[in-house]
Amino acid sequence: MKDNMQLIKFFLPSFYAKPKQPVIQVLLLVAFIYVAIQYFVLTLSIYFIATPEVYLFYNILLSNGMTYILISYFAISVVFSQSDFAIFAHLPISAKRVVMSKIISGVALPMMVVSILSIPTFFILLIEFNLGIAVKSIAFLLIMNVLIVLFLLFLLSILNHYRSVFINTSLYLLVRMTLIFGIGISPILYFLIKNYHAISTVLVKLDVSTISSLSVSISDFLEIGYRFAMQQSLVETLLSLNTLISFIFLFALCYVLFKATIKMIASKYYEHGLLVSRIEKTTKVWGRDIQSSLVNYLQREYWIIQSEPYFKMQAILGIILTPICTIIFLVQTNILKAEWIVNNESFLFVYMVLLMSCMNNISGTPYSREGKYYASSMTLPFDPQKVYLAKVMASSCIGTISVVISYIIYMLFGRGDIITGLHLLITLLLVITYNLLSPLYDRRHPLLEWSNPSEAIKSNPTVLISLLYGLPLLIVIGLLHFSLLTFDVSPLMTAVIIMVIVTLCTITVIYKMFFEGKNMKGYVNN
User: Would you say the pTM of this structure is higher than 0.70?
Assistant: First the structure.
């Protein structure tokens, strides 16, 4: 056990490295406090609106959802990472011990965060019920969170077992992210499908004229979910068991999943480690038959993204996140059917897609991601303009794929017309313009000294500062678009006006940055 603790202590700081910049440390602390306050306010609102039993149910549900999101974001990529293989491959440490330590270390922070967020719940349960029920409820909540974590990791360990079947790592990561999203969204879709008519009835009767009437409507909606969950055979079986038997059963299930996950990952630890090591050691050279030098620079950007699984995951996330939000947006629009939302649906969709496509970590950190490759761009006879252009094109390609898929989904819902086509062109031009501006700060102040690839993005203030370069343009265009619609300018004429303005902005930015060349040389010299 002592040896395992040493391994856990080794992995913990490598997974969750403390940001070096004080500004980022403060921002992370503020972000956590903000999330904690929002979570507490949400659970407290449910407590005052619903019955204690309904409150307890939704508190467990929210805690499970928070656990799933945190594990999906923080733990999965590091648990299945092979970056530690070069260190442990030649040491007399079994693969099972390494994998076990990685799992415990990977889920430590998410479970700690969820546990801290559950502290106010304990005191509310203590006030509403008694000490025994409060302790049992919190214990049940925590063990359900552990069960969700282990169940997800077990399913992903099965996918990881057949990793060599996939033609490349990007496809494997895409399938893994799709599986994670599918598992997370399937209970929600199942609930909506089974209770569509009941939910529609509540929404039709929704009264927001007073706070009390709104509370009644929300309470009715919460009751639907509570009754539906209590009618499920698995929940009925679990509630019918003795409390001690239920806990023993859940503990046993967690133990089996934990051991099975370790065995599945460890069985392929050396095989996948050798595969990743062989790929990383393969010499990368520019293609001899490629005539266009710009294609060579684009190939270099592709290699940089391919150099780390974390970068590939961010690129895939940048592609699929906007289409996912599009589906959620369209489903919510169809369910809510609020007059203001229906009248401005096209406008809201344009800027939802635009913001989701632009606010990613790919466009703002292209130089920081280079790390050890950055020296080659400074010492070798590379054209700085083409290096910059290749980075813009790489991030714009990711954004373009995301935008086009989102608009295809939007048109499949029957929203396609000439205005939609103009909006698509506006969105693509703004994505390109934003990507031209957002890397400017990172080019002057790249964060190159990082041991973990996540530090190049998560601990990098460039991500926030880059927003100041491109975000104001998006805000101004959005306000202008909204103002034209507010003054009863026809949607088609508004789209044409915005299209002309955005085209001029894009041409101006391209001319200033690449044809005048003054700004480019100034930033490089700095």
Answer: no
